[in-house]
């Protein structure tokens, strides 16, 4: 035993660092990247804007539909002959349609009561049962757009419940320029509620709040995937290999 007194605290290495209350809910995890559970969640919950396997039609973003509708709005002309919006001057007093733009025929495939309550401006009602008629399965307005250059027939419902099957069936019936609104009316109403005929049938959330909610959902799905993977039993092949290895010695 040393006769010299120790300098400082001899148990300093055993002293634990005080916890910061700011990080009480943070756990030490290892981000293993994309998992099967997370990929399935993102594939089933995030709005799909690209053509999916088995789909014969196109998917249009909501901003493309909104841009088309805004081009159709009449120019605002003041009493003195000027324009209410500065950029309207370059389009002339009339609603000059862009020659290089695509014209869309919007068809609402929901029930007639839902269509009457609220729908996208200029959209026509197309009952789902009409497509299965042996004669005249299309509306008269559809023949003016069917397979025409720079024209497209666009279907939509609330959340793509029925339009997937309808769009595929229309393509099989000879309508090549068929498309749907990605995300349906629910996604369109989030950013373009002013282009609806009435109050939206779904609640509206600010874009930053929607992005935050989706990020939280993905984070939760990722943590659930980690928990599921960490509690899975070891594979049978590993157990057999270990038992065989022990028996050989």
TrEMBL record:
Gene Ontology biological-process annotations: cilium assembly; protein transport
Record's keyword annotation contains Protein transport: yes
Gene Ontology cellular component terms for the protein in this record: centrosome; ciliary basal body
Keywords assigned by UniProt, alphabetized: Cell projection, Cilium, Cilium biogenesis/degradation, Cytoplasm, Cytoskeleton, Protein transport, Transport
Disordered, as annotated region: 216-249
Stretch forming the signal peptide: none
UniProt keyword annotation of Chaperone present: no
Localisation: Cytoplasm, Cytoskeleton, Cilium basal body; Cytoplasm, Cytoskeleton, Microtubule organizing center, Centrosome
Chief subcellular location: cytoplasm
Pfam family, one: Rhodanese
Family matches, as SUPFAM superfamilies: Rhodanese/Cell cycle control phosphatase
Domain Rhodanese: 104-197
Chain intervals with Basic and acidic residues compositional bias: 216-225
Record family assignment: Belongs to the CEP41 family.
Name of the protein: Rhodanese domain-containing protein
Natural source organism: Leishmania martiniquensis
